[in-house]
Design brief:
Elements: H1 38-52, H2 55-58, E1 64-68, E2 71-80, E3 86-87, E4 90-91, H3 92-105, E5 110-121, H4 126-143, E6 146-155, E7 163-172, E8 189-192, H5 198-207, H6 224-233, E9 239-241, H7 247-259, E10 262-266, H8 274-283, E11 297-300, H9 302-313, E12 322-328, E13 335-338, E14 344-346
Parallel strand pairs: 5-6, 10-13
Antiparallel strand pairs: 1-2, 2-7, 3-4, 5-7, 8-11, 8-12, 9-11, 10-12, 13-14
Helix pairs in contact: 3-4, 6-9
Protein name: Hydrogenase expression/formation protein HypE
Pfam families: AIRS, AIRS_C
Domain PurM-like C-terminal: 186-331
């Protein structure tokens, strides 16, 4: 098989691309507002949070943890607008289940029930709707979660891009589990559960008709079982986060800012598969900022790190887990990478989004 560097440069439809760093003083919504970076945070903090209020919402976690009748429940909702609807390794149906299940898992909860809302565009083939529904149902069964309620709406042709899906999920948080970034302290070990950047590049490759010499398949998967294995070692994990929109860089920055600690990452230890690295090099993208749909980042007390890492590697979805860094007292709220040459660089929160419409 030819090396990727021997392949001819792909023909790119650059007119259809969206600027990853739109101007922040625009009076209208831009694609970057949905990218999980600075623009997304400003939208939530300046418009949504003041409008809705509430202490639970102010925590801005992947899922809200609320008390009801003596039980602690995790509650999360997410919408999926990926284009194309089907991609190597998954589909919008898989994402709709796994994304919400994973948001619940990041609070330590095992998902129990999902709601599902379909927004269909007039003219979409019913066979496409059937395929998406079957994929969603299969993903739910694999994740051990039941779809118990739903809704369907249809919008006029040209206004829906085929199929959009919203799912909301509820799960029970076990006693003694308290996962939130405010618990992170200097000395915590940072672990990532596997190779990063795979999902975003897999979606982009089929969207833009690009070939990189090898097929890149999405890592889309439900992480509840992996989290269960970690919590079986100790319930005293400090925080978990699935690095979806904004990728690994956004997840680390959000945790650093919320915890008031610094984070130091060893650049050479972050696992980026060669095919993703080569694709990003050709296209001028940074794999640290590309969405993942089957990976998690954990901040673990140092005394438990070795045992937790061993448990992660024993699980199929965590077999490639590695330590990539630690929380530190210096440069509070900032993420710094130590390069292979011995220097350092700041890993910023992205402004907008490198690859829109990938989840």
């Amino acid at each position: 098989m030819s090396d990727i560097t021997d392949l001819p440069a792909p023909a790119l439809d650059v007119e259809g691309w969206t600027c990853p760093a739109p101007l922040r003083d625009r009076p209208r919504v831009v694609m970057g507002h949905g990218g999980g970076g600075v623009l997304s945070a400003e939208l939530v903090q300046q418009i949504f949070a003041p409008s809705f209020g509430g202490e639970v919402l102010a925590q801005l976690g992947d899922a809200a943890v609320v008390s009801l009748g003596g039980a602690r429940l995790a509650f999360s909702t997410d919408s999926y607008v990926v284009r194309p609807l089907f991609f190597p390794g998954g589909s919008i149906g898989d994402l709709a289940v796994n994304g919400t299940v994973n948001d619940l898992a990041m609070s330590g909860a095992r998902a129990a029930w999902l709601s599902c809302g379909f927004i269909l565009e007039e003219g979409v083939e019913l066979d496409v709707v059937r395929r998406v529904s079957e994929a969603l149902g299969a993903a739910a069964r694999t994740a051990g979660v039941e779809v118990v309620t739903g809704d369907t709406k249809v919008v006029e042709s040209g206004h829906g891009d085929g199929v959009y899906i919203n799912t909301a999920g509820i799960g029970l948080v076990p006693a003694g589990v308290d996962l939130r970034p405010q618990r992170v302290v200097p000395g915590d070990v940072v672990i990532v559960s596997g190779e990063v950047g795979v999902h975003g590049v897999a979606v982009m490759s089929v969207r833009e008709g690009l070939e990189f010499g090898v097929e890149i398949r999405s890592d889309c998967a439900a992480l509840g079982g992996l989290v269960d294995a970690m919590l079986a070692v100790t319930p005293d994990l400090h925080v978990l986060r699935d690095p979806t929109r904004g990728g690994l860089a956004a997840a680390l920055n959000e945790i650093a800012q919320a915890s008031g600690t610094g984070v130091v990452v060893q650049e050479r230890d972050v696992p980026v598969p060669p095919a993703v690295a080569n694709a990003c090099a050709i296209l001028g993208l940074d794999p640290w900022y590309i969405a993942n749909e089957g990976k998690l980042v954990a901040f673990v007390p140092r005394e438990h790190a070795d045992a937790v890492l061993e448990a992660m590697r024993a699980h199929p979805l965590g077999k490639d887990s590695v330590v990539i860094g630690e929380a530190v007292q210096a440069h509070a709220g900032m993420v710094v990478a130590r390069t292979g040459l011995g220097g350092t660089r700041v890993v910023d929160l992205p402004i907008g989004e490198q690859l829109p419409r990938i989840c």
